């Protein structure tokens, strides 16, 4: 839920900035700038699916680790040394 919410929020912010740029281009230049409605929905869905994918993968991987060793275990399954 957290990953989907964060990516939906990021997608909405990005689309708001993009909409503002489109509005500026359309109002300040003779270029007819328009954003199709379907592209808004596709962009939000892509944002949600990306966030869920990158949020679920580490969560599922972390759920399979031993509780005591999980935070200290690296990507290859070996323990990392702490300190210099």
* Oligomeric state of shown chains: single chain
How many whole angstroms does the radius of gyration measure? 20 Å
What is the average of the pLDDT values? Answer: 79
User: Can you summarize the main beta sheet?
Assistant: none
How many DSSP E strands? Answer: 0
Relative helix content: 55-70%
List keywords for this structure.
84 residues; mainly alpha
Architecture blueprint of SSEs:
Blueprint: H1 2-28, H2 37-63
Overall description:
This protein is mainly alpha-helical. Helix content is 64%, strand content 0%. The chain is built from 2 helices and no strands. It has helices spanning 2-28, 37-63. The protein is rod-shaped, with a radius of gyration of 20 Å. The mean pLDDT is 79.
Quick structural gist:
The protein has 84 residues and is mostly helical. Helices cover 64% and strands 0% of the residues.
């Amino acid at each position: 839920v957290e990953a989907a919410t964060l990516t939906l929020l990021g997608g909405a912010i990005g689309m708001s900035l993009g909409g503002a740029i489109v509005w500026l281009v359309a109002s300040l230049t003779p270029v007819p700038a328009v954003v199709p409605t379907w592209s808004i929905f596709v962009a939000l869905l892509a944002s949600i699916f990306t966030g869920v994918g990158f949020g679920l993968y580490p969560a599922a991987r972390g759920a399979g680790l031993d509780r005591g060793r999980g935070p200290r275990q690296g990507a290859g399954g070996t323990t990392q040394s702490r300190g210099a």
